[in-house]
Design goal:
An eight-stranded parallel barrel has the order 1-2-3-4-5-6-7-8, surrounded by five helices. The protein is built from 13 helices and eight strands. β1, α1 (27-37) and β2 (44-46) form a beta-alpha-beta unit. It has two domains: 16-252, TIM Barrel (Alpha-Beta Barrel); 263-358, Chorismate Mutase Domain, subunit A. α1 (27-37) packs parallel to α2 (65-77), α3 (88-96) runs parallel beside α5 (112-122) and α11 (263-303) packs across α13. It is an alpha/beta fold and 359 residues long. The longest helix is centred in the last third of the chain and has 41 residues, at 263-303. The structure holds phosphoenolpyruvate (PEP) and manganese (II) ion.
């Protein structure tokens, strides 16, 4: 799992670009898209052949014949080709057509049985495989899927961040929840990771900012949905770019680097980081004091048989801290998440004492 995407023989520098339609729909559509994308910089042509749809009755992919269209697109343009596999039969068909790269979709990586079946079908090959995050924000499950493939002997593995399903969030189709891919990167630092802003956003106009954010978070590349005419796309019409829109976006993206050679930058950053370190120490001390008080309150509640959770007090706290926080230039979402996290730990602390019967 040490190989970087740009060492896989793809004609790219750091940036790994996968582009193509959500679904292969017809030979003409696949060829037209591939020809437009072969203009440059695209690592592989993506197209869904078997489409996992939430409800039956919608377009579920063209199946096997789509692989022949992709194979033809490769022969005519020189682009490498990749698709999603969800079961052993898909893997076998893709290996037969000599696909250059495969990915495991978000619904499949949620299920260890399915991932294991795919890993078993891939045993003995070393085709590059990218694993999309599971639908739910579970970094262990995501890692587990990658480990199953690694255990089957695959070495050219990577991850795709495509956001997480959330009923509460209206802006994105799948919330980015960046802390999850950041945590995967911390646990598996050598793993190449690309971002799929199309499935995160669900709408074209949100994609550029998410694509840029992914690059600023040092993702190794992007997978973007591109259709010759998105208005007639059979799936995910609202999130697909035309090839022109795609190249326009790619031209505007900025690649940042983890380090700079400037000595002035290094000096100023280390000064600022020292200040941040000091502030973090103060934060931890304040939090520790707060938890001490919380434990005292927990003991009093236990004595009086008063519930740990106090809904009215919690309402007041949230309203008050959000008002104070936003007055201090902190975002409402951040203050709410911070207070939820503190409150959850406070409840846990009070419950430990209650269950243990300690003072
Ligand atoms: C796709 O890339 O076509 C796809 C279905 O994505 P996901 O598994 O992320 O939903
Ligand atoms: Mn799609």
């Amino acid at each position: 799992m040490k190989t970087k995407l740009n060492e896989w023989g793809f004609p790219i520098d750091r940036m790994f670009l996968a582009a193509g339609p959500c679904s292969a729909e017809s030979r003409e559509q696949v060829l037209e898209c591939a020809k437009a994308l072969s203009a440059g910089g695209v690592s592989f042509l993506r197209a869904g052949i078997w489409k996992p749809r939430t409800r039956p009755g919608s377009f579920e992919g063209v199946g096997l014949k789509g692989l022949a269209w992709m194979d033809q697109a490769r022969a005519e343009t020189g682009l490498k080709i990749g698709t999603e596999v969800a079961e052993a039969a898909h893997v076998e068909a893709c290996l037969e057509y000599g696909l250059d790269i495969l990915w495991v979709g978000a619904r499949t990586s949620t299920n260890p049985f399915s991932v294991q079946a795919i890993a078993d079908a891939l045993r003995g090959t070393d085709i590059p495989v990218l694993v999309k995050n599971p639908m739910n924000a579970d970094v262990g499950l995501w890692m587990g899927a990658i480990e199953r493939l690694a255990n089957a002997g695959l070495t050219r593995l990577g991850a795709i961040h495509r956001g997480f399903s959330s009923e509460l969030e209206m802006r994105y189709r799948n919330v980015p929840n960046w802390k999850v891919p950041i945590e995967l990167k911390r646990r598996m630092p050598e793993l190449p990771m690309i971002c799929d802003p199309s499935h995160i956003c669900g709408k074209r106009d949100l994609i550029p900012a998410v694509a840029q954010e992914a690059l600023d978070l040092l993702f190794d590349g992007l997978m973007l949905e591109v259709h010759p005419d998105p208005s007639v796309a059979l799936s995910d019409a609202e999130q697909q770019f035309t090839p022109e829109q795609f190249f326009d976006l790619v031209g505007k993206l900025k690649l940042s680097h983890e380090q700079s050679d400037s000595a002035a930058f290094a000096a100023r950053m280390s000064e600022l980081r020292e200040t941040v370190d000091g502030l973090d120490s103060q934060l931890l001390e304040v939090l520790s004091q707060r938890m001490n008080i919380v434990r005292k309150m927990g003991a009093l509640k236990t004595e009086q048989n008063v519930s740990t959770f106090q809904p009215h007090r919690w309402q007041e706290i949230v309203a008050d801290r959000i008002a104070k926080g936003t007055g201090l230039d902190l975002s409402e979402d951040f203050v709410l998440q911070l207070m939820q996290s503190i409150h959850e730990e406070a409840i846990r602390q009070q419950e430990i004492r209650r269950v243990d019967g300690a003072e």
